[in-house]
Design a protein that fits this description.
about 500 residues; alpha/beta; Rossmann fold; GMP Synthetase, Chain A, domain 3; 3 domains; 4-stranded parallel beta sheet; about 25% strand; binds methylmalonyl-coenzyme A; binds adenosine monophosphate
Length: about 500
């Protein structure tokens, strides 16, 4: 095989009449039709001057055309860099510059604000709207389709997924062709995904969950998906009777449970509900089983690794655990201070190694060395233990990270923006239990000596610079932050103090 990832996931579908996508309006697309468009998109990449190893950044609303571009990148060896549609111009500026993207595809509504940014980084700017129109599609329709996939090896980078860091600077996780292929193969096998499956796909396609876990496994198994632009309870309830599988973050499940219409009658065809990206409360697991008869299968992953563990498909799915490591993945628990292995069953830092573990952070060898040990184990920043039966329990995080509705928010990044405001002396950003998002972002802000509080200015700065999901849902102004004797801000004290801020009892999240 010249390009094992493309040859395994996509090439078998050339000319196939099998069903790939079902749109909410009932219209469908076959695999064969999809593959014709992939070849055209690949031709367009070549016409834009992109070669193997070049980066294509994309910030576009969810559509099948986005998947065509992703597949075209796999076909040509161009590195796919998908970006959250909520990112602001300032955030995009950083990604284009850091990745030195050759092409940036954005929604037509953002073309004007993106033009100077793209020009500054010498990036070619193209557009793609949710209905498939835009300047990229014009090229794809008129260029010569690519006939043969470009040769790519296992260690070639397939995608660059940015994840923020505890220092506030986003890092591009380099995922190789072998990383994506090994994870897809293991998951299809473990979750027994077969051609007749129909996945309810309502996740965004700019993250590992909605893109790699959901789409790569669909392609590999030749199954189909009911493709929704986003998750809403109404749409999910309408689609579930036709679906056999669903992948979601815990918020999907708690929202379904909050709706009286959800129950046995809508899940008659379903065989598997999968949850991940954030902790699913045991209580949600139990309630879901009572209401639907289905035990949600919880699994654990990271952008840097894809999936690491999964509850079994056949066998006991244990509430409050993320199951044993996947076949081929090794997971160990270490004392985070000494780096020594802890006793069986004790809590410590989760470290993982395997064919799923990324190659490192884009052009940040020192960051890579901090997190990826010489023996190939990634220090996840998640604290956990392994029980007697080999099930992994995640009990907390050592990294300063908030997970809100499945999106990661690094407090440092938000604090840096808030601290730039004139009247602010300093700030501490924490996650508080949130009934819908699991954790909600809260900013505790200290006023500079002699300055007057101006929440309007603070809001303006936050809105201009940070994507919506990172913006604090509550701001608390205070005189001083609690510190320990070393002068370090005690975020645990703040978390305790503000744990009831979002009133209702939290159902997901720590
Ligand atoms: C939307 N808002 C949010 C979030 N989503 N705020 C905080 N956290 C969020 N996740 C904002 C909206 O802009 C809106 O602001 C307000 O909150 C309420 O919006 P709502 O309509 O309720 O939100 P929504 O549009 O329904 O979105 C909620 C959602 C969505 C469906 C849960 O966030 C989502 O699809 N999350 C999935 C994330 C994901 O795919 N993560 C995978 C990462 P306003 O009202 O002011 O306008 S990959 C990963 O973690 C690893 C690899 C793994 O293990 O999977
Ligand atoms: P991301 O960087 O978006 O890939 O987020 C990865 C992080 O999400 C992990 O390091 C965990 O902290 C968290 N995560 C993913 N799946 C789960 C899960 N099932 N339970 C608890 N945390 C999870």
């Amino acid at each position: 095989m010249t390009n094992p990832l493309f040859d395994t996931l996509l090439a078998p579908h050339l000319g196939s009449d099998a069903l790939f996508v079902i749109h909410p309006d009932g219209s469908t697309q076959s695999y064969g039709a999809f593959m014709i468009n992939v070849a055209c998109a690949a031709g367009a990449l070549a016409q834009c001057g992109l070669h193997k190893g070049d980066r294509l950044a994309l910030q576009a609303e969810k559509s099948v055309e986005v998947l065509e571009i992703y597949a075209a990148c796999l076909m040509t060896g161009v590195i796919f860099l998908p970006l959250n549609t909520g990112y602001t111009a300032e955030e995009i500026d950083y990604f284009l510059g850091d990745a030195e993207a050759g092409v940036f595809i954005c929604d037509p509504s953002r073309e004007t604000e993106s033009a100077p940014i793209a020009a500054r980084h010498k990036t070619k700017l193209l557009t793609l709207s949710q209905n498939g129109s835009g300047s990229f599609s014009v090229i794809a329709k008129t260029c010569a389709p690519l006939e043969a996939a470009v040769a790519c090896g296992p260690n070639d980078i397939a995608a660059l997924l940015y994840t923020s860091g505890t220092t506030g600077r986003s890092k591009g996780a380099m995922l190789t062709h072998a990383n994506l292929l090994s994870n897809a193969e293991v998951l299809v096998d473990l979750w027994q995904i077969i051609q007749s499956d129909r996945l309810l796909h309502a996740l965004p396609v700019f993250h590992a969950h909605g893109l790699f876990v959901a789409v790569n496994t669909t392609w590999l198994s030749g199954s189909s998906m009911i493709f929704h632009p986003a998750f809403t309870v109404d749409n999910a309830l309408a689609a579930l009777p036709q679906a056999t599988t669903m992948m979601g973050v815990p918020t999907f499940y708690t929202r379904l449970l909050d709706d009286a219409r959800f129950g046995h009658d809508v899940v008659g065809n379903m065989r598997l509900f999968i949850s991940g990206s954030a902790p699913l409360l045991a209580e949600t697991h139990t309630q879901f089983e009572e209401r639907s008869g289905h035990r949600i299968l919880e699994r654990y992953g990271m952008t840097e690794t894809g999936m690491n563990t999964s509850n079994p498909y056949v066998g006991e799915r244990r509430a409050g655990t993320v199951g044993p490591p996947l076949p081929g993945v090794t997971l160990r628990i270490k004392d985070p201070d000494t780096g020594e292995a802890v006793a069986q069953g004790d809590i410590g830092m989760i470290e993982v190694a395997g064919p799923n573990v990324f190659q490192g952070y884009w052009r940040m060898p020192e960051k890579t060395a901090e997190e990826l040990r010489a023996d190939g184990f990634l220090i996840t920043g998640d604290m956990g233990r392994i029980d007697e039966e080999g099930y992994v329990h995640i009990v907390g995080r050592s990294k300063d990270l908030i997970i809100s509705g499945g999106y990661n928010v690094y407090p440092k990044e938000v604090e840096l923006v808030i601290d730039d405001v004139d009247w602010v002396r300093e700030s501490a950003v924490i996650g508080a239990p949130h009934p819908d998002f699991g954790e909600g972002v809260v900013a505790v802000v200290v006023v500079a000596a002699g300055a007057a509080v101006n929440l309007e200015v603070l809001t303006q700065v936050i809105v201009a610079r940070l994507a919506k999901f990172k913006q604090p849902k509550k701001v608390i102004v205070t005189k001083a932050l609690p510190r320990n004797t070393m002068g370090k801000v005690q975020k645990n004290v703040l978390r305790d103090e503000h744990r009831d801020l979002f009133a209702q009892k939290a159902r997901n999240g720590f």
